Amino acid sequence: MRVLLVGINYAPDLIGVAKYNAELCESLAAEGHDVRVITAPPYYPAWKTPTDFRSSYFRSKWIGGVRVRRAPIYVPQHPSGAKRLVHHASFALSSAVPLLIDALSWRPDVMIAVAPSLMSAALVSFVARRVGAKSWLHVQDLEVDAAFDLGLLRNHSLRKWMLRAEAAILKSFDHVSTISEAMLLRLAIKGLAPNKALEVRNWIDTSAICPGSRMTKYRQELKLGDDDIVALYSGTMSHKQGLELIVEAAIKLEHSHPHIHFILAGGGPRKKRLEDMASGHANVHFLGLQPNESFNELMATADFHLIPQKAAAADLVLPSKLGAIFASARPVIAMAEEGTGLAAEVTGAGIVIPPGDSSALEVAICQLSEAPALRRRCGEEGRKRALDRWDRRTIVRRWAEVIAGQRSSSEKEGLDPTAVNDNIGLLGEDAVR
After folding, report:
1. Which candidate, 358, 133, 339, 392, places its Cα nearest to that of 250?
2. Where are the domains positioned within the chain?
3. How many CB atoms lie within 10 A of CB 131?
4. Is the model's pLDDT at 123 over the cut of 60?
5. Which residue among 51, 157, 282, 421 sits deepest, i.e. has the most Cβ atoms within 10 Å of its Cβ?
6. Domains 2-203 and 217-386 share a fold
7. Is the whole-model pTM more than 0.85?
8. 305 pairs with which residues across the strands?
9. Ordered DSSP codes for 252-320
C-alpha cells in the first residue's frame, strides 16, 4: 500500500504522540508498505524548535524507511489556550500544500490523520475522497474537550462552535480509532457511528522495557541507597497532570519519611513552576528528558510510579506512560475516578485514588513504601498486563492488517462492515482489551 500520514508530532521528538506516529510508520514500512509523512519540526515538550530544523521546511528526509516532509509551524514559548489554537492553525495551513501535492501526484491508498491536530485532519478526509483513498483518523487526545475542561479556553460560544466542527470532522472519515475503550465511548457520545470506530491502544516494546535492578545510575547520581524509596513521575509536565500535588506531598513527607524520594523526569511548560515549588527540599529531584537507551534504567529506578491527573482530564486521554510502567514490573499510584478507563487499567496493578486528593496521595505513597510484598505483587501483575495488552509488535502488526484488509475489501465490493468487525475483534481479543 501507499500510506500517507499527516500529524503534527513525529521523531526525533521522544515522547507522546511523536513516538507512536514514528513507530507506526516505521513498522508499516518494515512490512513493505510505501509510507510518507507530513509533519512539523520537533518542538515538544520544550515548545522550542531546534535551530537546525528551521532551514529544512518542505524538504524530504528518509527516517527509518519513511519519507518525512516538514512544514513550518508557529511554536509559542508560553502556550496559552489562544496561542495553542494559532499553533494548530499554522500547521493546518502550512501542511496543506505538501498534502495536496502528495495526494494528487502520488495517489495514496490510505490517508491517516492523527489528532492532535484535528484542524489539519479536516483537509485529509476532504482530499482523500477526491483522490479515491480511504481516510483514517486516529485520536490520541480529545483536544477540544481537554482545552475547555482544563480551563485553557473558556468561551462558551467558541466551545459550541468547536464541538460542531469536531463532530463534522469525525463523521467525514471512513474509519476512526482511538487509544482506549473509555475514549471510544466519548466518541460515540459525540455521534460517531459504532461501525466506524475501533480501539487501537498505544503500545510498548516489552523486550526493551523490562524488569531490572532498582540500583541504577540514577540512584548513584542522586546519592540514593538501597533503603531509599523512589516515587517516579516520567513524562510531560503540563496542565493536565496536576503535578503540583506530587511536590506538595513530597514537602509534607520530607521530615516524617525522609527515606522517600521523589523524581520528576521530563520537560514541559509547568516544569519551572514545579522546580520553584520544590526549591530547598532535598527529597525532590528533577531530571531532563532521558534518551531512549536510558529509559529502561530510568523506569527500573522507581519503587513505584505516579500518575497524577486532574478530574477534568478523565477519559480525555489514556496516559501512554502506563504501558511502560507495567512493562517495567513496577506498581503505580494513579489519580482517577472510579469507572474511568485509567482506573480500570490500574486496579490490581497499583493503587487508584481520587483526582486532586493530596491526603489520599500521601497515604498511598506511605502504604506502598512500607509494603514490599504488595509492590512486588502489583509489579508482577503489571508486567503480565503489558505482555497481554500493550505489546508493540502485536498491536502494530494487526493495525496494519486491518488497514490492508479494509483497503482490499473496499476495492473489491465496497466496505464490508462484517469483515471490519472481524478485524477489530482481532485487535480487541489479543492486543487491546
Report:
1. 358
2. 2-203, 217-386
3. 17
4. yes
5. 421
6. yes
7. no
8. 232, 332
9. HHTTT-TTEEEEEE---TTHHHHHHHHTT-TTEEEE-PPPHHHHHHHHHH-SEEEE---GGGTTT---T
Cell output for 320: 501512554
The listed range with the strongest mean pLDDT (91-105, 186-200, 309-323) is 91-105
- At the topology level of CATH, where does 2-203 sit? Rossmann fold (3.40.50)
pLDDT above 80 (res 407): no
CATH 3.40.50.2000 fits 217-386, yes or no: yes
| HSE value, Cβ hemisphere, 13 Å, CA-based, for 9 | 26
Q: Which residues contact 222 (CB under 8 A, 6 or more apart)?
A: 261, 263, 285
**Burial per residue of 136-147, b for 16 or more beta-carbon CB atoms within 10 angstroms, e otherwise:** bbbbbbbbbbbb
Identity at 140, one-letter amino acid code:
Q
Q: Does 153 have pLDDT greater than 90?
A: no
Q: Please report, for residues 29, 180, 223, 329, 349, the alpha-carbon distance to residue 379 in angstroms, rounded to integers and kept in the order given.
A: 34, 22, 25, 4, 6
227-259 tens-digit pLDDT = 999 999 998 888 767 899 999 999 999 999 999
Which single residue is written with the C-alpha cell 472519515? 173
One-letter identity of residue 238: S
Q: Stretch 217-223: mean pLDDT, rounded?
A: 96
**Is the per-residue pLDDT at 306 higher than 50?**
yes
Helix (H/G/I), strand (E/B), else coil: 344: helix
Radius of gyration of the chain (CA): 22
